[in-house]
Amino acid sequence: MPMEFFLLCLLSLGNLATFATGDDRFAYSGFTGANLTLDGTATVTPEGLLVLTNGTANLIGHAINPTPLHFRRRPDGTVESFSVSFVFGIQSINPDVSVDGMAFFVSRSNNFSNAFASQFLGLLNDQNDGNKSNHIFAVELDTFQNTELQDINDNHVGIDINSLHSKQSHSAGFYEDSSGAFKNLSLNSGEAMRVWVSYDGGDTQINVTMAPLRAAKPARPLLSLTYNLSAVLIDPAYIGFSSATGPVSTRYFLLGWSFSLNSLAPDIDIAKLPKLPRVGPKPSSRILVIITPISTAVFIITMGTIIILLVLRRRRYAELREDWEVEFGPHRYKYKDLYQATEGFRNKHLLGVGGFGKVYKGVLPGSKLEVAVKVVSHDSRQGMKEFITEVVSIGRLRHRNLVPLLGYCRRKHELILVYDYMPNGSLDKYLYHDGEKSTLDWAQRFQIIRDIARGLLYLHEKWEKVVIHRDIKASNILLDINMNGRLGDFGLARLYDHGSGPQTTRVVGTIGYIAPEMVRTGKASPLTDVFAFGMFLLEVSCGRRPFKETSTGQGFRLVDFVLEHWHNGSLMEALDTRLQGHCNVNEACLVFNLALLCLHPVPNGRPSMRQAMQYLDGDTPLPELAPMGLSGSMPSLMQDIGFSPSVMSYPTSFGTISSLSGGR
């Protein structure tokens, strides 16, 4: 045998750096030749580095031990003790932002085909998060603060049980043995770090410890939680790692991994670990600077300055683009055009700030078209491709009472939506200004009500798909140059085919406009839009917000206020005081009664938007409201038909539930 071949074999065996004494005990110091099941973006490089996610946005990677393990071999059937150690590294294109994280897990299943990326880390989705039937234990390394999951910050370690809402979490770091002082570690620093996870089956203690790669294991764990995993894990179970990215390019790596049942995990040979890719440009040689003539140095500095300026200019207009977006080309705007249209998103062009981001007025170069540019941070529950598909679908909506969504643009962790500009702004500014005289008389208000009813009828019945808006309110009604009402902001809208029925989702919308059945079931439907439309009718007629806290600390509920006047036969006294004596009484009574009908706590008691339009047009008489069904307050009505007190509660202030990512 040639000597070269013999040496090559020895090197190959050395690179494996793997041993095992059985299925329940192993160690990988590098992953060349490792027996792992990989899916998604996970891959092993020739150097033995396990790359869970390669930096592509909104994708998932898994690395799973292929043999399921038996954790319940005790006579009493409880889960045995186990120990884990692993070395990881996280790198982000933008050192200030990294999305979303990675996790070690023990799970009943090795099939994560229904899991979501982003905040769900490739383990769960928005439907099963928190379900006891998940039977999953995980330790997460999270680099993004998701308020929906109540994350403590954007650099933390958490213990997760059946949910990505961590049972316990702590900022990443370690406690020094000498002083006991806490030292922070930055998860996305690009440096290799080590984590130890242990579970004591006797005292049901979970400990999680971390430290820099070459530091000894600290005596004090970062996290310590008493929790009986016998109530969680099902035998046999799979162990492995999962990682997921959001809209920001981030790479998640594993360098080594060891595991053992009923003993300490074998040590990882640090000397044999593969190297993480280097972040940033290679260092320049100082020798060249010393020996280069001054004229050459000046030339280099000048050229370098020019290159830097070009790079900065390019970075200013940098976008995120992927191959699949080609099909959506006509709906995608260049970031450079939007930047120039808004003069760099300057505050003087700011139209408003909401729960989902900022809206700027802009004039597109070339066409000189006036647009409204909405910039939002996006962390979609769906894949980005599915999200853009829905954006483009909604962009095909065309109706005189809808604000046209013209297109989108993606940049770093931002999604930018481009709408047609409405010069007269939003309706709420006219309803709630401080002037004594309303700038909208009754005729204008009644016309706007009919405009929005027509727009909703188009969404629910007349377009090729059923569109549920899910956030109907005065601030989302915009007025065009002729003061016509147009329904805008489709950030929470959902689409489904006619005849198929809506899918269950989490509760989204604005508090005060959310139908009671949506709070109970999470299922939006055209009738939940009708409920919000009913509250909108009261908002326009009364010139009052659905809820506010009075000076005495009591909560004012608009629906109860109107119900009381209805019951006393004094509906006109509920009308905006600026309109009293200056309106069509019959139309006002029609609107009040239609509003109460739309706000019926039982969905089937509400009209469809087609029926509502017929009532407003006078084509069909409005049915009489039964006194038996509308006595008392709305909470009491809801309680009478079986709604729980939690569903009937009203907040002390308004806010929008969820976010753009959550709404999609």
Counting structural domains, the number is 4
Class per helix and strand makeup: alpha+beta
What does the main sheet amount to? 9 strands, antiparallel
Task: Tell me the name of the CATH class of the largest domain.
Answer: Mainly Beta
Number of helices: 15
Distance between the termini: 63 Å
Q: Kindly estimate the percentage of residues that lie in beta strands according to DSSP.
A: 25-35%
Number of strands: 31
CATH structural architecture of the largest domain: Sandwich
Rounded radius of gyration (Å):
30 Å
List the helices and strands and how they pair.
Elements (H helix, E strand, L loop, with lengths): L2 H14 L1 E5 L2 E5 L7 E4 L2 E2 L5 E5 L5 E5 L17 E11 L7 E8 L28 E7 L13 E6 L6 E4 L1 E3 L6 E3 L8 E8 L4 E8 L10 E4 L11 E8 L4 E12 L24 H6 L2 H23 L18 H7 L8 E5 L2 E7 L6 E8 L6 H12 L9 E7 L2 E7 L7 H4 L10 H21 L2 E4 L8 E3 L5 E3 L6 E4 L11 E2 L5 H6 L4 H17 L4 E3 L5 E3 H11 L16 H14 L10 H9 L16 H7 L4 H4 L7 E2 L2 H4 L1
Antiparallel strand pairs: 1-2, 2-18, 3-6, 4-5, 5-18, 6-17, 7-14, 7-18, 8-9, 8-17, 9-10, 10-11, 12-13, 14-15, 15-16, 19-20, 20-21, 21-23, 22-23, 24-27, 25-26, 28-31, 29-30
Helix pairs in contact: 7-9, 7-12, 9-11
Structural features:
7-stranded antiparallel β-sheet; 15 helices; single chain; 31 strands; alpha+beta; disordered C terminus; Phosphorylase Kinase, domain 1; 664 residues
